[in-house]
Amino acid sequence: MDFRKQAEKAEQFRKMHHGPRMLLLPNAWDVASACILEECGHPAIATTSAGVAYSLGYPDGQRISRDEMLAVAGRIARAVNIPVTADLEAGYGTTVKDVVDTVKAAIAAGIIGMNLEDVTGDDESSLVDLSLQVEKIRAIRKTAAALGVPFVLNARTDFYLMPIGPDATRFQNTVERLRAYRDAGADCLFAPGLYDRETIGKLVEALKAPLNILANPACPPVAELEKIGVARMSAGSGLMRAAIGLVQRVGKEILESRSFNTMFVGATPYIDLKRMMTRQANEANA
């Protein structure tokens, strides 16, 4: 791995959170989807932990192993020339050492940043103690600095997405957590599940740091989020689910209408995919 080039990509990605326009970040789940997104012109991409897990037959939520997740994320990072940040869930373990090992492996795989969640399971009982989460973030910063890669950390709290606790307490708890993550060294702060324009605006003001919002039909338009200062909006598992939705529609049409017509509407030409995969294979072997 060329750590100099990797460090340059990480710094490029960090700057995208402070540009005049909000970073719209799509999430890939395999090499083909990553190459297509790069060819579309995206300056950076993320991986989707749910998309990778589902494609390998696992439920979402850290049921997949660290090695399997990083094998896919690493293949994606090596297949494209743009920065790739990875959704690495809660770090694949419960201790600071577990998270440090994950960061070392991610950097070795060519990844330039990560999401870090503060829940490790399916309910609020798995919420990581705040002091421990802060310790993990500080350890990530220290590890990345020692390796010479300005790893871009997107620290996430799930008070709105899960949701956790009474509705009246979620905003203050989110602010408390994300401020602590900011002060520990997180580059961007992620509050998935928050869709109300007024509340998002209040969170931007309270944090005074780059804020990441998860795309959802309930969200305000991109232009409004950009106007109130949101730095990043990510697709999460949305692209993968859109692709799976097409598979469902085509599969039903084949059975019910005895037709393949929908399969050809908007399909990427075979020759284009072959060209993309040939290019990345040649570059990987160069």
Number of helices: 11
Beta-strand content estimate: 5-15%
Oligomer state equals single chain
Number of domains: 1
CATH fold call: TIM Barrel
Shape: globular
Helix content: 40-55%
Name the strands of the widest sheet in spatial order: 1-9-8-7-6-5-4-3-2
Q: Calculate the terminal CA-CA distance, rounded to whole Å.
A: 13 Å
> Topology as H/E string?
HEEHEHHEHEHEHEHEHEHH
- Got a strand count? 9
CATH superfamily: Phosphoenolpyruvate-binding domains
**How does CATH name the architecture?**
Alpha-Beta Barrel
Mean pLDDT: 96
What is the highest CATH level, the class?
Alpha Beta
Structural class per helix/strand content?
Answer: alpha/beta
Largest sheet: 9 strands, parallel
> Poorly predicted ranges (pLDDT <50, ≥5 residues)?
none
Radius of gyration: 19 Å
How does this structure look, described?
By secondary structure, the protein is an alpha/beta fold. 51% of the residues lie in helices and 11% in strands. The chain contains 11 helices and 9 strands. It has helices at residues 3-15, 31-40, 49-55, 66-79, 96-108, 130-147, 167-184, 197-207, 222-228, 238-256, 270-285; strands at 23-25, 27-28, 45-47, 84-87, 113-116, 152-156, 188-190, 211-214, 232-234. The chain has a 9-stranded parallel beta sheet with strand order 1-9-8-7-6-5-4-3-2. The longest helix has 19 residues, at 238-256. The two termini are 13 Å apart.
What attributes characterize this protein structure?
286 residues, alpha/beta, TIM Barrel, globular
Characterize this entry briefly.
The chain is of the alpha/beta class. It is 51% helix and 11% strand.
